[in-house]
Automatic annotation (TrEMBL):
<dbReference type="InterPro" id="IPR001845">
    <property type="entry name" value="HTH_ArsR_DNA-bd_dom"/>
</dbReference>
<dbReference type="InterPro" id="IPR011991">
    <property type="entry name" value="ArsR-like_HTH"/>
</dbReference>
<feature type="domain" description="HTH arsR-type">
    <location>
        <begin position="19"/>
        <end position="103"/>
    </location>
</feature>
<dbReference type="Pfam" id="PF12840">
    <property type="entry name" value="HTH_20"/>
</dbReference>
<protein>
    <submittedName>
        <fullName>ArsR/SmtB family transcription factor</fullName>
    </submittedName>
</protein>
<dbReference type="InterPro" id="IPR036390">
    <property type="entry name" value="WH_DNA-bd_sf"/>
</dbReference>
<dbReference type="InterPro" id="IPR036388">
    <property type="entry name" value="WH-like_DNA-bd_sf"/>
</dbReference>
């Protein structure tokens, strides 16, 4: 006899590749991505900013964390400068991590917006799949299985990535800010 039985719907989906997931295993790396989202910084500047934020790390440790993010493709060298007989590297993030918590009543307050967006997205996705379904399926056939999952949802992952990248582009182009102001 079961003491509790309830239907638990999926409410959140996180899309990323395994390399990026491993790179974010340590919270200091998310902090570094946040720092580098809007500004180019050197290892020394990242080190100082982490200390200012209360994270005391050795500069070599900071360098290691930046290299992990760089190897995962989340941080790039944005600028090189000559400095005292050497080269100073400035790093910039090409990845944003949003890690917020919505207020408790957000689901109720945003229900109308969610319903409208669902209806609008259904039509957009139908058009997208009608125009590009073959390309999406071809890419899906080339994907490697997720090392964590038994079930594979390649096409869904690809469509979510397309939507995410498009939203990111709109944000970077300033169109989100324009619409929200």
């Amino acid at each position: 006899m079961s003491l509790l039985e309830t239907d638990v719907p999926v409410r959140n989906v996180i899309t990323t590749d395994p390399t990026k997931a491993k790179a974010l295993e340590q919270d200091v790396r998310a902090k570094i991505l946040d720092m580098l989202a809007d500004e180019e910084l050197t290892i020394e500047e990242i080190h100082a900013e982490l200390e200012r934020r209360g994270d005391r790390k050795a500069e070599t440790t900071v360098r290691h964390h930046v290299n992990v993010l760089k190897d995962a493709g989340m941080v790039e060298i944005a600028r090189l400068e000559e400095a005292g007989g050497g080269t100073r590297k400035y790093y910039k993030s090409n990845t944003r991590v949003f890690s917020y918590e919505l207020p408790d009543d957000a689901d109720d307050r945003l229900d109308g917006a969610s319903t409208q967006l669902r209806d609008d997205l259904r039509a957009v996705l139908a058009d997208l799949l009608a125009a590009h379904g073959d390309e999406i399926e071809a890419v899906a056939r080339e994907m490697k299985p997720c090392e964590y999952c038994q079930t594979q949802h390649y096409e869904e992952f690809i469509v979510r990535e397309l939507v995410n990248r498009t939203l990111t582009d709109l944000g970077e182009d300033g169109e989100f800010a324009d619409l929200l102001s």
